[in-house]
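Fold Annotation — chain and its backbone
Next Lines — sequence and tokenised fold

***
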Amino acid sequence: MRSVTMNLAWRNLSRKRRRTFLSVAGVAVSCAISLVTIGYVKGKIETFVRTTADGGIGHLRLVPEEWMKARDPKWRLHDWQRELDLLRSAPDVRVATPRLRAQGMIAMGAHAVGVEVVGVDPQTEPQTFRYVRKMGSGRYLDAKGRNEMVLGQGAADTLKIEAGDVVVATVVGAGGDMLSDMFTVVGLVSTGIEEVDAGLCQVNMPDLERLTGQPGAGEITLILRDYRKAQELQTALSPKLSTADRLLRWDQIAPESRLAVEINQKVSVWLTAILMIVALMGVASAQLTAVLERRKELAMLAAIGMSGRRLGALIFLEGAVLGILGAAGALILAVPIDFYLATIGINMGSNIQFSSMAIDTVFRTDFGWWLLADASILSLVTALLASAYPAWFVSRQDPISAMRVSQ
């Protein structure tokens, strides 16, 4: 059985249906736009993180302790085989792959190009480095192959070579000596990003170990099942690893990506705040108008014994009902739009480059149960804040003075 306060609140809202509808519509539309914006920003942030991680950085990366200061490719992990097994055994790690790097030069006849030669595990590398998942020509490295190489199309164009040609790779050894060997270019990668295509060079890790005379991995890159667990996993795994090595998050390695994420988060917060303030002002105006129209009625309730606190609660209850209806309306408007954008996405139509990385041309929003929670919170908070001043006004009015007001 509904209370007297609830009956009064419902009656007051239902007898001015047009004003109630406009108040609910204002909250619903503002909240729906906010939900679509939040979903888009969440999807955009996920795209930035995925682009950073799949661009070779990973969600987490194990490196030598002093790596962040100089990023010297000659440094090696302390006990990389044990650490690799440990990292791969973590339940939140989808894939972990070792890498070895060396500064070098690739030559063919009179043509030469400077590159960073990266030794990889061909079985796991494509899962952490998306540019090599689809070859422009030829094939990717074979784990059983010897002295095979994959080059970016830009480097190949400079060298005037095609897949199947043999090149000379020269790298800097541990003692600073120049060491060379012959490699067969088995595949070319074309990403559409000039900087990537000009510098991409991968070989099997054992081949680069032999060439440099320095065994061991220089880094281990991890892709997680959920990037949001990166900090949690970093904290959990770090004590189990060698003190000579350090586990870094993607945002520590690529601060420009972290900055992009932070900017998008702030834009989302400010836009949501502006939309909610607009809705708040509309609801507050409607609530205050309703209170002024009912001054005598409210004064009569006060005269027969309803306390000022209870009168204020009546106004807050009306606001809560408006918030609940607004949340329902927001979900009706936002859910189909968010679902479409999450499944079909927004096709930007051309390659997008961010910090020397190719971003997916199709942006997809985030879609999930968070829509229900955010819609409820945004709508209720907006409606209740809008009811604060009218509730205060009603609770403080003098019944005798209010009865004298002509309506």
Remarks:
- The mean pLDDT is 83.
- The longest strand covers residues 93-108.
- The radius of gyration is 31 Å.
- Residues 130 and 306 are 68 Å apart (CA to CA).
